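User: Good morning. I'm curious how adenosine monophosphate would be positioned relative to this chain. Could you predict the structure with it bound?
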Amino acid sequence: MESIKKLIRDIPDFPKPGIIFKDITPILGDPAAMARITGAFEKEFESARPTRVVGIESRGFIFGALLAQALNLPFTPVRKPGKLPYDKISVSYTLEYGEGTLEMHTDGVTRADRVIVLDDLLATGGTAAAACELVEKVGAKIAGIGFVIELGFLEGRGRLKGREIVSLVKF
Ligand code: AMP
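Assistant: Good morning! Here's the predicted structure, ligand included:
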């Protein structure tokens, strides 16, 4: 995954002073890198016997939809407020630079599902924890949580304790 690490661009002070934003757009521009990432998630999560992939807006949609396709599983988007048109449930949470709410359609996940939650980056873990809460509200199980990037120094894993976590590139 060293070749993937080279495709992650540091943008200092974005979107706020003091934040070093990890820009993954160079990864998106490299189809071989995208295939390597999808293949790595596929291998890591095979034994978890997932039935669905939930992707977190917006970069989680990209990696999540590719993984869902590769595993031949349905994909469900978890979105920021006001974007989903149908009946939905919501959860509020704190993140590295602000406060947020996530929403999911009530029929996005069923009670019988074993869900992989996917996002591009694990920082404090608040976003992923909120997505897991949405999935569990419906009565489904979390089979695993995947991130392309983990910012280890923010200790987001602590917030996701007891869950199967896969991160491909660590800082
Ligand atoms: P957190 O809830 O603190 O784990 O934040 C994770 C979410 O915020 C993910 O959806 C990331 O895309 C985004 N995020 C947080 N920190 C950064 C960062 N330094 N660079 C890029 N994205 C970030």
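The chain has a mean pLDDT of 96. Strands lie at 9-12, 20-23, 52-56, 75-78, 88-95, 98-105, 114-122, 141-150, 165-170.
Let me know if you'd like a different ligand tried.
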